[in-house]
Amino acid sequence: MTTLRFLGCGDAFGSGGRFNTCFLLTYGETRALIDCGASSLIAMRKFGVEPNGIGTILITHLHGDHFGGLVFLLLDAQLVSRRTAPLTIAGPPGIAKRLDDAMEVFFPGSSGIPRKYELQVVELEAGVRREFGPVTVTPHLVKHPCGAPPFALRVELGGKSVTYTGDTEWVDALIPAAEGVDLLVAEAYFHDKPIRYHLNFETVRQNLPRLGARRVVLTHMSPDMLARDRGCEVAEDGLELEI
Question: How many CB atoms sit inside 10 A of residue 196's CB?
Fold first, then answer.
């Protein structure tokens, strides 16, 4: 059974008291994260998720509420959890340098500390399918300025598929990213207000026939969206879904 658990489904500003984006994908003994926002290690502690059990982390884009938690996760692995198992982090071009920069800003000298586990940081390329053990990911280029190419990610594990739009305004690349997937996790930042570089619920709703996903769950909602009757499945911190 493949499951997706929302460890965090909030926006960058903690709207509704929600943690930053972090989804846990599980199949058997395989555990992978999709995004690891700044509050993700706190969310893992709250929901009883063992950081050392995560083997792969996939990052959509390089904003702090989607990748900032890597800094704390890597320091925890070295100093607290005493990780020995290998860890793979895969994300947009430039992720290795941005991660080192972030570590040096928050904890000077931390990026150069020798680790007691193997860390592999991989740069993904739009349209190129990659396999990391049983986890397969195909990035699709979207539109959300963050100093590096932003992606929607189509991830396959245990014979099931999930696509996360990441943060983006509408782009037609979302159609092949979501076509036929078992679960589409879609940003719906506002209800119908157009805002650059973000999706709103009306845009998602109008394009559902084109997207062709079997199931859709909304995430990354602002106070405007949280206050609405959405008429659609929505993510909650801690919610676990069977895909």
Answer: 8
User: Hey, CA dihedral for 39, 42, 46, 50, is it positive or negative?
Assistant: positive
Q: Which amino acid is at 136?
A: T
Whats the size of the chain, residue-wise? 243
Q: Which residue has the tokens 């008291």?
A: 17
- What DSSP assignment string belongs to 7-61? EE---TT-GGGPPPSEEEEEETTEEEEE---TTHHHHHHHHT--GGG--EEE-S-
> 60 vs 63, 79, 128, CA distance in Å?
9, 27, 14
Are 43 and 72 contacting, i.e. CB atoms less than 8 angstroms apart?
no
Tokens of 205: 């709703």
**What is the separation, in whole angstroms, between the first and last Cα of the chain?**
8
- The CATH fold assigned to 2-242 is Metallo-beta-lactamase; Chain A (3.60.15)
Residue-range domain boundaries for the chain: 2-242
Taking a C-beta distance cutoff of 8 angstroms, is the pair 86, 117 a contact?
A: yes
CA distance 97 to 151: 18
Residue 29 tokens, joined: 């003994």
Q: Assign residue 205 a region (left: φ > 0; alpha: ψ between -120 and 50; beta: otherwise).
A: alpha
Global confidence as pTM = 0.97
Strand, helix or coil for residue 111: helix
pLDDT at 228: 86
For residue 230, pLDDT beyond 80: no
